[in-house]
Structure formats: C-alpha cells, structure tokens
Specification:
- The structure is a single chain.
- This protein has ten helices and six strands.
- A hairpin with a 2-residue loop joins strand 3 and strand 4.
- It has one domain: yeast vps74-n-term truncation variant domain like (yeast vps74-n-term truncation variant fold), CATH 1.10.3630.10.
- The chain is of the alpha+beta class.
- Helix 1 runs antiparallel to helix 2, helix 2 packs across helix 5 and helix 7 runs parallel beside helix 10.
- Strands 1-2 form a two-stranded antiparallel sheet. It has a two-stranded antiparallel sheet with strand order 3-4. Strands 5-6 form a two-stranded antiparallel sheet.
- Keywords: Golgi apparatus, Lipid-binding, Membrane.
- It is a peripheral membrane protein.
- InterPro entries: GPP34-like, GPP34-like_sf.
- This is GPP34 family phosphoprotein.
Length: about 210
C-alpha cells in the first residue's frame, strides 16, 4: 500500500489534482473553502473541536496545525460558514507548502501568456492520488457507512460539498446523493457549511450579474 499524507487538508489538496490533465482542478477560494473545512473536520473528528448551539467550540486540547482552535477560542461564537470562509486563500498556500516540504509535490513558477506569474503543481508519485481516490471511491460504493474509514468518508463529503470534479463529477454527485448524505452526516458540520458558502457566493454573483 502506498503511503499517503496524514492530515485531511493535505489529502483533499491532492484529491483536487487531476492526474490525466496533470493540473489542479480546483484553486483559489473554492479550494480554500474545501481545505478550511477539511481542517475543521479533522479537528471535529478527533474531538479537538465540538459543536455547541450549532457553532464550533474548542473541545479536547491537542495539536492546532493551522491555528484554527486558537482563533475559535479567542473569538465570539461564529458560524461554521464563517470559519470556512475565513482565511480561505492563505490555507491553500499553507497546505501546498506543507506538501512541498514533505516531498509529495513539486511547485514551479511559470508565466501565463508570458506575462502573469503562476505556480505549476506536479504530484511526484501519482500512486498517492490513486490511493486517495480509491479510498474515496470505496467509501462511496463499498462497505456499510458505519464501517467506512472516517477520513475516506470525510473526503467524499468534502469533495461533494466543494464540487471537486476530480473526485465527484456532477453526475456522480446526483447518482449517489443518498450515500453522500450518509457519509456527510458521519463527518460533522463543516462539509455542509462549504455547500452553503458556495451557494451563497453563487447567489451574490447571480444577483450582481442581473
């Protein structure tokens, strides 16, 4: 079995990579929302974060790799959607740097149209992405939900909520809607928050466009 990153945000970053096209299929705010939700979900699953009156609150003390627990503890009670949106872009860079330091990816600078600087991400070992995709696929189609690995269940929930086409194209999200709902229920409140954030953003964009 191929070794995969331990953290859920790192796994979701790699799952957003399209092996066939050899590029990230999600970026910017969309990817940031998924990664923030992944960080919140990891804390929730490990008991370091709890839900009180529909909002996140510190739970059992423990590691706080992205500083989320400290910020939540220092803040007045806020919604899950707030914490999904908050600092969504910086976490993309933080997780990418984490993966680059760990030797999972290679990042090279390039220029779009010869003018605009951009970073090109390459996964060093495609088997890692295949292993992660296999776990998500098995969670979606395999054993009873109660027996699914918690991170694989969360990967499906987050990919569906964040519309990561590299994991769950639109037809698959519709076909497996009930199973996705069951996996989401196992994974905590952060994944539904991603869906709400994205829908709210679209509503604002549609209103501005009209």
């Amino acid at each position: 079995m191929v070794e995969v990153p331990e953290t859920l945000p790192a796994r979701m970053y790699l799952l957003a990579y399209d092996l066939r096209k050899q590029r990230m299929t999600a970026r910017g705010a969309q990817l940031g929302y998924v990664l923030r939700a992944a960080a919140l979900t990891e804390l929730f699953l490990d008991g370091r974060l709890e839900e009180r009156r529909g909002r996140p609150a510190p739970g059992t003390p423990g590691d706080d790799p992205y500083g989320l627990l400290a910020r939540i503890a220092a803040s007045r009670p806020r919604s899950w959607q707030y914490w999904v949106r908050k600092d969504a872009r910086p976490i993309v860079r933080a997780v990418r740097d984490e993966l680059e330091r760990g030797g999972w990816i290679r990042v090279r600078g390039r220029r779009v149209l010869g003018l605009f600087p951009a970073d090109e991400v390459t996964v060093k070992d495609p088997r890692v992405v295949k292993q992660l995709w296999g776990g998500a696929s098995s969670a979606l189609r395999g054993r009873p939900v109660a027996h699914v690995n918690s991170y694989d269940a969360a990967a499906v929930a987050l990919a569906a909520a964040g519309e990561l086409k590299s994991v769950l194209p639109g037809p698959d999200r519709r076909r497996h809607r009930r199973r996705i709902a069951e996996l989401t229920a196992r994974s905590g409140p952060a994944a539904p928050a991603v869906r709400k954030v994205i829908r709210a953003q679209r509503a604002v964009a549609a209103s501005a466009g009209s």
